[in-house]
Write a structure and sequence with these properties.
It contains two helices and ten strands. With 136 residues, it is an alpha+beta fold. It folds into two domains: 82 residues, ATP Synthase, domain 1 (Sandwich), CATH 2.60.15.10; 47 residues. The strands form two sheets. It has a five-stranded mixed β-sheet with strand order 2-1-9-8-5, with no helix packed on it. Strands 4-3-6-7-10 form a five-stranded antiparallel β-sheet, with helices on one face. β3 and β4 form a beta hairpin. α1 runs antiparallel to α2. 27% of the residues are buried.
Length: 136
């Protein structure tokens, strides 16, 4: 079966580099599935789950906002957060959600502060979704 090279990169690290048969990412207009020989495109991604199908099975990553570039033989995901399911700390993500919700209730936030807290909340929700989906 043909495959494509996938690279998931954050500002801190290259989180994944390898071969994939399929990649599903959370695009701004909904889920986007990419197979080998896909038409080239570039789009924005939102916080959510990236599912990577490899020869060895399936990997799930919680991702933040960013960009997805697709070429016929390669996919690049540039994001502000990417955590493989096995490394997600569910308790820490729950605590981050509680802190963000509390901050939004208790403080009058400026536009920029509110956007920062909301982005943090969405990244934490993405982590919880990926972690809890894998336990079903």
């Amino acid at each position: 079966m043909s495959s494509l090279q996938l690279e998931i990169v954050t500002p801190e690290a290259r989180v994944f580099t390898g071969s994939a048969q399929m990649v599903i990412a959370p695009g701004v207009e909904g889920g986007l599935g990419v197979l080998p020989d896909h038409m080239p495109l570039m789009t924005e991604i939102i916080p959510g789950e990236v599912i990577v199908t490899t020869e060895d099975g399936e990997l799930s990553f919680a991702v933040g906002g960013g960009f997805l570039e697709v070429l016929p033989d390669r996919v690049s995901i540039l994001t502000d957060m990417a955590i493989v399911e096995a490394e997600i700390d569910e308790k820490a993500a729950e605590e981050a959600v509680a802190r963000a919700e509390q901050e939004m209730r208790d403080k009058v936030l400026s536009g920029e502060e509110l956007a920062t807290v909301q982005a943090s909340l969405l990244r934490s929700f993405a982590q919880l979704h990926v972690k809890r989906r894998s336990h079903r």
